[in-house]
Amino acid sequence: MEKIEDPFFEAKEQITFQFSEARYLYDLYVKTAREGNIGTSSTLLDISNELWKIINEIDDCLIDLEEVVFAVERQPEKYKISDEEASERRLFVNRARNDLEQMQKDMSEPVEDVCCRREEKLLKQTVHDEESLDNSLAMSPKLALKYQKLLEDEQDTQLDYVFGTVQNLREQASIMGRELEEQFELIEEVDTRIERTGEKLKRGFRNMKWVIKKNEGKFLSKVLENNLSKTKYLPIL
Hints:
There is one protein chain. The protein is mostly helical. The protein has 2 domains: 1-108, Methane Monooxygenase Hydroxylase, Chain G, domain 1; 173-236. The protein contains 7 helices and no strands. The longest helix is centred in the last third of the chain and has 92 residues, at 141-232. The protein is rod-shaped and about 155 Å long. Keywords: Coiled coil, Golgi apparatus, Membrane, Protein transport, Transmembrane, Transmembrane helix, Transport. One of its GO terms (biological process) is protein transport. This is t-SNARE affecting a late Golgi compartment protein 1.
């Protein structure tokens, strides 16, 4: 009978590596939340999104691996493995599933609760456990640089945002200054026009009074002349 290639070990290696990434991100998530520096909120969101992405990938891999383990348990003769090996594989899958569900539960809770529970857990650990934890967080230089770059990029983004805000405020202040200056010039121009119009009105009134007075004199003279001419022809009683 032809021996069928066993995909378990490749899937196991992939899941183990993904868990290593997830644990690193999880501790980075807790550490960032505990420090609470400028830009923490957006940094936490980036880390959380990346962590959930890996969690979902682990979940998909585990589903496939569980199917493989189940298939091997049904027909172990095809894969040439013992019952003990099959039990170890089932144990690995169950532990991975439990760890994944716990991580999903932790990430679904408020970050404050996660930090408190994490601190309590660290306080209860022995020196050996702490060393094991440090070892579990030992990542490849490439991955460590990747997330260090993520933090640096986030800080650069925050600085760019602050700088951009300052620049916008300066531009707005400059625009407001120019608008105020233009309004002041417009007001001065209106005042000048009003003043000129007032002067023209005054001159107009003066001319009008002069014309009226002049015409009044002519009118009175004419009236007197008419009256005198009429008296010449009146009969003497």
